[in-house]
Specification:
Structural class: alpha+beta
Distance between the termini: 45 Å
Radius of gyration: 17 Å
Oligomer: single chain
Strand content: 15-25%
Number of strands: 4
Strand order of the largest sheet: 2-1-4-3
Number of helices: 2
Shape: globular
Length: 100
């Protein structure tokens, strides 16, 4: 029973976090994930726990006047890319020119 409460609390916190984060673009502050503007498919990825048991932390970037300019999350899909590269090596896939 206690596990369910912990899960519910964690789910509520994730939803609250995403709800707050999604308000920034509505106010003209873009959110970037790995150097591209975040889309609907990206939001859930930010609430996943990384391999090191940490959540993704954004960098809040200010303009020259100290106002919030953008929010950046870096290395979010890095683990996914590394896994794909490893899977490609195991299956004998060759990289295309310019591919990581």
């Amino acid at each position: 029973m206690q596990k369910q409460n912990c899960y519910s609390k964690g789910k509520e916190e994730k939803e609250q976090f995403l709800k707050g984060l999604k308000r920034y673009p509505e106010k003209g502050v873009p959110v970037y994930i790995d150097d591209r503007e975040a889309g609907p498919e990206d939001w859930e990825k930010l609430t996943q726990v990384r391999e090191d048991n940490r959540f993704y932390m954004g960098d809040f970037v200010q303009n020259e006047y100290g106002e919030l300019k953008e929010i950046r999350f870096d290395m979010v899909y890095h683990g996914d890319i590394m896994e794909e590269k490893e899977a490609g090596k195991k299956h004998g896939k060759k990289k295309r020119e310019g591919e990581l």
